[in-house]
Write a structure and sequence with these properties.
The protein is mainly alpha-helical and 255 residues long. The protein has helices at 8-15, 18-26, 44-50, 54-64, 89-96, 99-105, 127-134, 137-143, 153-163, 166-178, 188-195, 199-206, 214-242, 246-254, and strands at 114-118, 121-125. Keywords: ANK repeat, Repeat.
Length: 255
């Protein structure tokens, strides 16, 4: 056993030492490697996902389809083991930005919301917004094909808008356009973009021309932009009249 209760399997998974891992997996007298837990509650598959090591994750998954882990179950329970922070292997793969591992897990892992332990209990956050929060747009692309992840597009888009994650926002909007969905039915992402001056995300949102919900809001934005331009023109004339003399301007406003 290594530091923090980690085994050689944890180390091999994190460093993508595939040959070493295959050797230990072949030794039947060793404890079941998929169930080895370190002091943080992580399995070797957690370690592979945390370090975006698709090679060792794939090796573990190939081993996992054999008895006693397969047991003809469509969703093996060991795959959804949570560490002490409440993170499953799938969440660690999303957090590290590994679309390859997310794809490997997509047919077997649970897509339940990630629960973060707090002093008052636990807060749950769907996995798609988790990916948007980290701006892992390739992971978002994989998640959109999984179970009911698509139903969380509006929430994920609002998260992306608040964090100014243009790549994630674009991925979500493009997916919605291809599938004829409204990515922002209540214009929450647009409001967040305006309130937080996320102009890059706002321009991406307003490019979704077929969204009826955005039309009134986009017209308001255009009107506001035109108003600002008119103000700029007035200020330019004002400064020209005073010759750019700040003292004369202060005297004028003091009258």
């Amino acid at each position: 056993m290594l530091r923090n209760g980690k085994t050689v399997m944890h180390h091999a998974a994190a460093e993508e030492l595939v040959i070493l891992m295959e050797f230990f997996l072949s030794v039947e007298s060793l404890p079941h490697p998929l169930l080895q837990i370190d002091l943080d509650g992580c399995t070797p598959l957690h370690s592979a996902a945390s370090h975006s090591q698709a090679g060792t994750a794939h090796t573990i998954m190939r081993y996992a389809v054999k008895p006693p882990f397969s047991l003809n179950r469509s969703r093996p329970k060991w795959l959804d083991v949570k560490n002490k922070d409440g993170a499953t292997v799938l969440f660690k793969a999303i957090e590290s930005g590994s679309p390859e591992i997310v794809r490997l897990l997509s047919h077997s892992a649970s897509f339940n919301a990630h629960e973060t332990p707090t002093s008052s209990g636990a807060t749950a956050m769907p996995l798609l917004p988790c990916a948007a929060q980290s701006d892992h747009f390739l992971v978002i692309r994989e998640l959109l094909y999984c179970e009911d992840a698509a139903s969380y597009v509006p929430r994920a888009l609002s998260v992306a808008a608040g964090e100014r994650h243009i790549a994630s926002a674009t991925e979500l909007i493009d997916w919605a356009m291809r599938h004829g969905c409204d990515p922002d039915p209540n214009a929450e992402a647009v409001k967040i973009s305006v309130d937080n001056n996320r102009l890059e995300v706002l321009s991406t949102l307003l490019s979704f021309r077929d969204n009826v919900q955005l039309e009134p809001f986009s017209l308001d934005v255009v009107a506001y932009t035109d108003f600002c331009r008119e103000v700029d023109k007035v200020l330019e004339t004002f400064w020209a009249d005073f010759g750019g003399d700040i003292c004369r301007v202060e005297l004028f406003w003091g009258q």
